[in-house]
Amino acid sequence: MGIYGVILVGMSFTTSEADRAKADGANLNLWTGVGLLVLAAALIGWAVTRPIVFDERELAEDKAAAEHEQPSAH
């Protein structure tokens, strides 16, 4: 999303007056690009501040259970 946001913001500088007129004078490439950049920043911030936490005890129990459930080779 961030990459598309950067592309749209870059393309907003080449938006013609005819295209802006179709959108009631708004530069939709600019506003959509800014929105995508804000969303990408929010998702990155969320990923950084709320990392995945593994319970080591539960992980070991799941691994042991998976080893006992493996089918034998015929």
Explain the overall architecture.
α1 (2-12) runs antiparallel to α3 (28-49). Helix content is 70%, strand content 0%. It has one domain (2-68). It is rod-shaped and about 70 Å long. By secondary structure, it is mostly helical. The chain crosses the membrane at residues 28-48. It comes from Dermacoccus abyssi. Keywords: Membrane, Transmembrane, Transmembrane helix.
Topology of this protein?
Layout lengths: L1 H11 L4 H6 L5 H22 L6 H13 L6
Strand % is: under 5%
Enumerate how many helices there are, as a single number. 4
Low-confidence segments: none
Could you tell me the radius of gyration in angstroms?
24 Å
> Any idea what the shape is?
rod-shaped
Task: Note the gap between the termini.
Answer: 49 Å
What helical percentage do the residues reach?
over 70%
**Integer count of domains:** 1
SSE run: HHHH
Total beta strands? 0
Instruction: Please summarize the sheet with the most strands.
Output: none
What structural class results from the helix and strand content? mainly alpha
Overall mean pLDDT stands at 90
